[in-house]
Amino acid sequence: MATRLGILTGGGDAPGLNAVIRAVARRSLDRGYEVVGVREGWAGLVESRFEPLGPREVSGLLPRGGTIIGTSRTNPFKIEGGAEAVLRNFGERLDALVTIGGEDTLGVAARLHEEHGLAVVGVPKTIDNDLSATDYTFGFDTAVAICTEAIDRLHTTAESHNRVMVVEVMGRHTGWIAVMSGIAGGADVILIPEQPISVEQACRELRHRHERGKDFSIVVVSEGYELTYESGERRTVTQDAATDAFGHVRLGGVGDALAQDIEERTGYETRVTVLGHVQRGGTPTARDRVLATRYGIKAADLVHEGRFGRMAALHGDEIVDVSLREATIELKTVPPAWYDVARAFFG
Ligand code: F6P
C-alpha cells in the first residue's frame, strides 16, 4: 500500500504556504503516495478532518496567497484529550505528516515526535523570520516587499504635508520586518523589540533631521516594540489582555501611542499607518515561491527517507535539515550589526 502523507499548516498564514503544499504533494504523488490535507492546523488532526490533495487540487497554487487547507492556532496540548486524539486520528488515517508552521506549530510537532514518536517533518514558516535554525523563512520576503512599497508611498504624502508618518509593521518578538523594510524604504527612525531605544531619543533624531532641512520623516515601528522612556518607564501596547492557546496576547496599537508621543514632544504633525494583515495577504514574491518550493521538496524527501523529527532549513544558499527541537528552542533576533546599518540613516 502506498504511504499516506498528511500536510498541515498552522499558525498565522504566510505567502508561500500553497507553494510548499504543491511541492510536497507533487514530489510525493510522483512516488505513488496518497496525499491529504489536514484541515485548519492541529484542529484537523484533533477532529479528524482531512481532504484529498491530488494533482488537480495542487494545480495553480504558486501565485495563490493563504493556505488552501486552512490554518488555526490550535494547541492540542491545551485541549482535554487533544494529543491523544491527534495520535489516534493520525494512526487511523496517516503514515507520515509534513507540518508547516512557526515556533508554536513546530513546537507541538517536536513534542509529539519526541514523546510519542509521531512521524513528522517540519517546514519553517513565519513572516516574522524569527526561527533560529534557518536563515530565512518563506513569507518574510513578501512581507518586506509590501512594507517597503508602503513606506515608498508614504514618503510622497509625508513630504507634501510636512508630516511625520509612523508605520506599524508586524513582528511580535523581533524586528526583522521593520529593519529590512526600513532600510529598503529609507526610514528615518526604526524601533524594534530587540533595541529598545527611547521615545525621547527617537524624537531627538527627528528634530535633528528637521534641523538639517527636512520637513517630513518616516518612523517604522514593530508591533512588539515596548514604548521605552528615559525615566525608565516601559509599556507594551496590546489590543486586549486575552491570550491565545500558545499564550500570546494580541499586539497592535503601538503606532498610535508612539505618534501621540512624537507629536506632543516635537510639535510635528504626525499620522499613523498600521499595515496589519495586508503584510500576510496576497501573492508571494518569486523569492518566497522558490524558497517555499525548495523547502517542500526537502520535506517530501525527508519523509521518503524516513528521517522524522527533522525540519528543512536554509543555511546560506543550501537547503539542509535540522532537528525540530533545535528549530524551536530559541528565537532568531535581529543582530546588532543589522540594526547598525539601519541606524546609520537615522535623523
Ligand atoms: O506570527 C506572525 C504574526 O504575523 C505576528 O507578527 C503577529 O503578532 C501575529 O502573526 C498576528 O496574527 P493574528 O492576527 O492572525 O493572530
Per-chain topology:
Elements: E1 4-9, H1 17-30, E2 34-38, H2 42-46, E3 50-52, H3 82-93, E4 96-101, H4 103-116, E5 120-124, H5 140-161, E6 164-169, H6 176-185, E7 189-191, H7 199-211, E8 217-222, E9 227-228, E10 234-235, E11 238-243, E12 249-251, H8 254-266, E13 270-274, H9 286-304, E14 310-315, E15 318-323, H10 324-329, H11 336-343
Parallel strand pairs: 1-2, 1-4, 4-5, 6-8, 6-13, 7-8
Antiparallel strand pairs: 2-3, 9-10, 11-12, 14-15
Helix pairs in contact: 1-9, 5-6, 6-11, 7-8
Bound molecules: 6-O-phosphono-beta-D-fructofuranose.
6-O-phosphono-beta-D-fructofuranose (F6P) binds near residues 127, 128, 170 and 172.
Kindly summarize this structure in a few lines:
With 347 residues, the chain is α/β, with parallel strands linked by helices. The protein has helices spanning 17-30, 42-46, 82-93, 103-116, 140-161, 176-185, 199-211, 254-266, 286-304, 324-329, 336-343, and strands spanning 4-9, 34-38, 50-52, 96-101, 120-124, 164-169, 189-191, 217-222, 227-228, 234-235, 238-243, 249-251, 270-274, 310-315, 318-323.
Structure in words:
With 347 residues, the protein is of the alpha/beta class. It has 11 helices and 15 strands. The strands form 5 sheets. The protein has a 5-stranded mixed sheet, sandwiched between helices. It has a 4-stranded parallel sheet with strand order 7-8-6-13, sandwiched between helices. The chain has a two-stranded antiparallel sheet with strand order 9-10. α5 crosses α6 (176-185) and α6 (176-185) runs parallel beside α11 (336-343). It is elongated, with a radius of gyration of 22 Å.
